[in-house]
Amino acid sequence: MGDVILTMKDIDKSFPGVHALDHVNLELKRGEVHALMGENGAGKSTLMKVLTGIYKKDSGTITYEGKEIEFHNTREAQDAGIVIVHQELNMLGHLTVAQNIFIGREFKKGFGIDDKKMNEEAKKLFDRMHIDIDPREKMSHLTVGKQQMCEIAKAISHDAKVIIFDEPSAALTETEIDQLFKIIRDLREKNLGIIYISHRMDEIKVITDRITVMRDGQYVGTLITAQSSKNDIINMMVGRVIYEDPKTHSMVPEGAPVVLKVENLNAGKMVQNVSFELHKGEILGFSGLMGAGRTETARALFGADPKESGDIYINGEKVDIKSPLDAVKHGMGYLSEDRKQYGIVVQKSVAENTTMATMEEYMNGIFINKKKEAETAQSFVDQLATKTPSVDQLVVNLSGGNQQKVVIAKWLTRNSDILIFDEPTRGIDVGAKNEIYKLMNKLASEGKAIIMISSEMTEILRMSDRIVIMCEGKKTGELDIAEASQENIMNMATREIN
Amino acid sequence: MAKENVMPAVQKKSPFGKLKGQSLIVLLVIIGLFIFFCIMSPSFRRYTTIISILDYSYYIALMAIGVAFPLMTGGVDLSIGTGLICYSLVGGWLIQVHGMPVGVGLAACILFGLVMGAINGVLVSFMELPPFLATLCTMMVNRGLGSVIAGRAISWPVAAAPGGWFRNIFKITVGKTLIPIGFLWVILLVILMSFVLNHTKIGRYTLAIGSNKEATRLSGVNVKFYHLFAYVISGFFAGLAAISYSAIFATVQPGTGAGFEMEAIGGAIIGGVSATGGAGSIVGTLFGVFVFCLLKTGLPFIGLQANWQQIITGLVLIGAVLIDIIKKKKGNA
Amino acid sequence: MDKFKENSFVKKVGFNRIVLFFVMILMYAFFCVVTGGKFFGMDRVLSLLNYAYFLGFLSLGVTFVIATGGIDFSIGPVMFCCALISGFSLTSYGVPMGLALVISVLVGLAFGLFNGFLVAYMSVPPFIVSMASMNIAKGIASVFTRSQSVSWPQSAGAGGWYRNLVKVGNIPVGLIFFLAAAAICAILLNNTKIGRYILCLGSNKEAVRLSGVNIKKWEMLAYTICGLLVGIAAIFYVSAYTTVQPGYGDQYNNEAIAGCVMGGTSMAGGLASIGGTVIGVLIIALLQEGILALGFAKDYQLIITGIIVIAAVYADVVARRRKN
Questions:
Q1: Strand arrangement of the beta sheet that strand A258-267 belongs to
Q2: pLDDT confidence of residue A240
Q3: Distance between CA atoms of C124 and C205, rounded to whole angstroms?
Q4: Which residues contact B58 (CB under 8 A, 6 or more apart)?
């Protein structure tokens, strides 16, 4: 390890309703792989966005190569040698791989762009990374894993001094992860500083030199990887919050009836012949890599996307679900992974969101009975301990966890028996997360059947009674919680690819 | 690593090499329409008909080539129709009322187009107004400005008059036959703009913005500038269209021009420019334009007057977008 | 100031609405002063209101569409189409006055259904639908009337009673109809399921759909309501001006949208205020009359309205940006 290349000191950043970063520190040396760890919503991605100029910090200092700097956009950061491999893919589907990699700094030939040279350079880059992708392929035709590799190739192709990997492995198979680690070690040799964001403990132990832990938007501490145990790290990450114990066996009573049965569901290449059963009072975990087809399965099941074939039985009766309207009529509720886009209407009040699916019950002739609406919303606010000044508050002003509770309330007003939670705790801070878990367990114990899609292994192992594993649009395994482990789930989750 | 570094040729450079799918269908539609009109009307089968189809095609084609760029960014430019008339009025007014040379009038058309394009660009790109609304406003502004500045109908010089040379830009008479050389310029511009679209940064970023603006921004592209530039291109071509309109029709009425934009936008969309941005072809756009020009010229031959054309063009536009939408739905399933 | 904003009456009416109201008063005063009091007369007020009625109905209609996050800029030409078809039926086919008015509303309704169906059920982008409808409306009107302008009967003529819709003697009864329609629209938007779903789907379509709501139905309904109001607008247009010419009407698109956006309806959808639209429309009408009273040509109206719409929408964009 060399000298310090980057120091972030006392970084502070607030969004409406959330104190995202509370005086956070980070120090990176040349030739170091530095892990940035923390639960979902701890503020890791936000910190990196502040560094690369996507967000503007409220206060604090960033020192880079001995000078205090502040970038106003990613271009400035790139030019200074700091590049980021984003967690959410930033691809331009209509363009080719090479065009994507070199966007913003195309090779010139006369007045035009030298696409040929770009293809050749991209090819060289891939060869150096030992991956096989045709640079002329359209980006939208690649698998999610390969798209991720292209993002990495793009980052490397910059003449960077600092590279940030934001959960790069979430979409990658084991082989691809091995390739990635080779690439990272190579970069370390070349004296680059690398920030590696992940919450996969095993990877952190293998690849990183030091670890900075964040929690609830605060800086907790920095460890040397070689000198710390897994438990040290977990303790720092989790802190005061005491999680419920992982389930060791299924909580579903013997002989609980099947409420939902799905047979050979097909919807495009992301959902191929998926079959499973869901019992009353059960939490069925759906595990897999990013892009495995779990969300697509849920959406097809819920009628949000068209399905090609497949039979759905609810309480033993075959049902025809063509739209979310049908699904809701049959007692299903869907809580999307992307609340802002699919879950809530942010510019509307808590009350309006709560009654969205059950409007008919609040009608007085043709008029809306706003008093009754407010009463119902209030009762759910009390029941779920939603933190909001009033039911007239606009949902946009609530924190992630409380927004999620509003969505849950929406489905509870409908008395839905089958609830699909898609990444239920994404973007929710740690304390609230635990409340959501408690709530889900309570709902299951009251006889609701729950499908829980999650990319967090710990969440899957902690909450599920049974686990369905998907890969590349197919179901590749099913495990009872008693027999499930991180290893056998990962095995099944990459079965189709290797 | 089984693959060699040698890459097989998948893309052909010639514009006809890319003639596939939609472009091919549109071409067949054009041929079909042409044959249909020929069969239905004997008077359609004349050389002068072809000339009049081409006469109509220039200004629509030029507008369409330009407006394809805002469309590909996921926006639209509705101001080109009344813009064309406004620029032509201003240019003609300089010549007729102020006795300026024709060259100045022509330059004024283009300059005015560039300025209005830049204003649209600023409104959409920097001020983040919805494109259809911003350009709907400039559409009305153009109409008002044209009338306010010129005040009345304007006649550009006739061919025989001094300064009438400019009318030969689009049509020359050799012996007794008219040669529509304007078509040559249009083809050259199509080739040029195809190159700009497919092989320059301007085109690349236009498509990238239409595909995913935020991702393009995060890649360090100066999105605002290139977004603005798409509208400048549109304005510039509206200026060129104004010149062709003046050269062909000579007389310009204030208050007209509304509706021209639909033929141009419709042509672009029929030619494969996505109404939601991110994809498009200039060659296809030219084909699309000819669908409208054929309808415009051909319908009167089978007894349907100008007003029917408005209805039919509207329906054709919706039909074209519907086909595009249905095709996409099938593609996703 | 903050205290004023917290006042329960102010909160209910909306701070921006109150500001807008005073802007209107100030503008009126301004025009009165610069025209040397000419603007103060009853004639001016009546002529101003004549302009405000039909524009008001257009604006009320388009408010529903904009609330869904869509747009309809075919309303002006469609209004003319309604007035021409019904007027031509009246003058050339001898249809009775009552029926002619019904035809006008039905034509508007038909266009509303057509636009709504294409946008909601066929997912055609609203601006494409508007563009096509605008031309179809002009085309149909011209074909139907053989490109002739249509003159509706004068007050004294047979069937002239319809002109009493705008004024009886010097009493502006049109105002009553307009305000009543606005009240109904306000109730529709704020207190019924239609309004709730229209606003919600304008704010986040996908979330509403995933809640099991038939969003296509509600979205189409917004365009249908708009069409209906455009049909009514046509009646008030002819009641005020009697003569209609085919091929026109575009300029009213902008003015109607301007009234709506100025009144606080967000172009991004999800936020709409009928009260705001009413004041917005009155301001636009004031402006049009004012420009004429100052002796400018009609063409200046186009330019000035265009600039005002841009300013109003930009204010909306800035307000939203600040919120996020």
A1: A317-319, A309-314, A258-267, A271-279, A474-480, A466-471, A283-287, A449-453, A418-422, A332-335
A2: 53
A3: 15
A4: B170, B182, B183, B186, B241, B244, B245, B248
Q: What class, spelled out in words, does domain A258-493 have in CATH?
A: alpha beta
- Chain A residues whose beta carbon lies within 8 Å of the beta carbon of residue C210: 302, 304, 324, 334, 336, 342-343
Q: Which residues of chain B neighbour A99 with C-beta distances below 8 Å?
A: 204
Subunit partners of chain A (3 or more CB pairs within 8 A): B, C
Return the exposure string of A396-411: e unless at least 16 CB atoms fall within 10 Å of the residue's CB, then b: bebbbbbbbbbbbbbb
Domain boundaries, chain C: 41-312
Distance separating alpha carbons of residues B123 and B128, to the nearest angstrom? 6
The structural architecture, per CATH, of the domain C41-312 is Orthogonal Bundle (1.10)
Could you report the predicted ipTM of this complex, rounded to two decimals? 0.85
- The domain limits of chain A are 4-238, 258-493
* Residues in chain C, overall count: 324
DSSP A380-448: HHHHTT---S-TTSBGGGS-HHHHHHHHHHHHHHTT-SEEEEESTTTT--HHHHHHHHHHHHHHHHTT-
- Amino acid of residue B222: N
C203 contacts on A by Cβ (under 8 Å) = 345-348
Q: How far is CA B5 from CA A132, B2, B115, in A?
A: 11, 10, 47
Which CATH code for domain B46-326?
A: 1.10.3470
**Pair B260, B249: CB distance under 8 Å:** no
Please give the angle made by the CA atoms of B86, B91 and B97, to the nearest 5 degrees: 110
- Indicate if the pLDDT at residue B158 is higher than 90: no
Q: CB distance B310–C135 less than 8 Å?
A: yes
CATH 3.40.190.10 is right for the domain spanning A4-238: no
The closest alpha carbon to C55, from C228, C230, C223, C177, belongs to: C230
Q: Flag whether residue A343 sits within 8 Å of chain C, measured between CB atoms.
A: yes
End-to-end CA distance of chain B: 33
Number of Cβ within 10 Å of residue A242's Cβ equals 8
Exposure pattern of B166-189 as b/e (b: 16+ CB <10 Å)? bbebbbeeeeeebebebbebbeeb
Closest residue by Cα to residue C139 from C81, C201, C214, C57: C81
**Distance separating alpha carbons of residues C245 and B176, to the nearest angstrom:** 42
Contacts of B25 by beta carbon, 8 Å cutoff, 6+ apart: none
pLDDT band at B5 (very low <50, low <70, confident <90, very high): very low
A330 contacts on C by Cβ (under 8 Å): none
* A242 pLDDT higher than 60: no
Question: Residue A160 and residue A168: Cα distance in Å, rounded?
Answer: 17
pLDDT band at A230 (very low <50, low <70, confident <90, very high): confident
Which of A49, A133, A146 lies closest to A91, judged by CA? A146
Tokens of A134: 């045709």
Across the interface, whether the CB atoms of B133 and C313 are under 8 A apart is answered yes
Q: For chain C, which ranges sit under pLDDT 50?
A: none
Mean of the per-residue pLDDT values for chain C? 90
| Residue scoring higher pLDDT (A365 or A194) | A194
CA distance B183 to A85: 49
Encoded amino acid at B169, one letter: I
- Judge whether residue A252 has pLDDT over 90: no
Q: Read off the pLDDT of residues A339-357 as tens digits, 9 standing for 90 and up.
A: 877 888 888 899 999 998 8
Domain A4-238 and domain A258-493 have a common topology:
yes
Residue C164: phi and psi, rounded to 5, are -70, -10
SS3 label, residue A55: coil
